[in-house]
């Protein structure tokens, strides 16, 4: 008896959502008040059931949100399969702590993290230095430049072959929107100069938007790609995206060593190389020191959390 339509949320701004139905039609929708009461906010990427308006011409209502595979706070999205953690070797200067927080949040949520180093043209040597750090994590690493086209074909081949929902995330001005325009020439996303972003204190991309890949490239695919607004370090200051117990498992390159630490409750923090196999691996250059520094910093944040603050 229901005339409901099934779809996926492509964008949401000020309580107004765009939902794309399987037919291809896009419907403007509002969320039902019941979601607010349940403190449930519909997210871009959510699979939903929408109810037609009683009076023609009015908005549809999101009536049901189907169970999520995962949901992130930054970027605010549901059901991600792949997260491209994007940064430039400089302009803006990357923070490995910020990148490692994002990567570890993806791992924790069973989202495949992929490292993308943009603006390689600005400093090939710095870009290579960062690539070295991240190749040791076991995560896939792409180096590219939207300016001279280096590495774009290899990344495009990978992105175009993905299934499900993927998103490009990273600080404002790293070149996410420019890169998406290079990967999908049919897109023409707004991009902006870094100096202008700083002067205005604003991001060029203001909200998360999901694009169906089949509308952008000439292959049959059900995949979606999202451009997201750059976030700032502030978004991760109060770090409680997972618990202290989860932390070592969010750094996958530590995993093969952890069983060899002298004490089973080893925290891999201040132990000597003699006692801690992770520390020993860092000294042998098998794990990047910068990654361990991020680990220590997140560890210090999480250890400070009072029990009642813990989830
Ligand atoms: N040299 C160089 N400049 C680039 C490259 N990619 C992007 N840029 C420039 O970097 C600036 C920022 O690019 P955007 O694509 O707007 O950055 P964004 O990550 O989408 O930023 P937000 O939307 O604010 O999060 C623009 O001036 C781009 O022209 C690149 O590969 N090389
Ligand atoms: Mg952008
Ligand atoms: Zn250890």
Which terms summarize this structure?
OB fold (Dihydrolipoamide Acetyltransferase, E2P); 3 domains; binds zinc ion; binds magnesium ion; Ribonucleotide Reductase Protein R1, domain 1
3D architecture notes:
With 311 residues, this protein is of the alpha/beta class. The chain is built from nine helices and 13 strands. The longest helix is centred in the last third of the chain and has 16 residues, at 289-304. The mean pLDDT is 93. The protein has three domains: 5-67, Nucleic acid-binding proteins (OB fold (Dihydrolipoamide Acetyltransferase, E2P), Beta Barrel), CATH 2.40.50.140; 72-236, Rossmann fold; 247-309, Ribonucleotide Reductase Protein R1, domain 1, CATH 1.10.40. The structure holds guanosine-5'-triphosphate, magnesium ion (MG) and zinc ion. The site of magnesium ion has 5 residues, from helix 5.
CATH architecture of the largest domain: 3-Layer(aba) Sandwich
User: What proportion of the residues form beta strands (DSSP E)?
Assistant: 15-25%
Oligomeric composition of the shown chains:
single chain
Bound molecule kinds, no repeats = guanosine-5'-triphosphate, magnesium ion, zinc ion
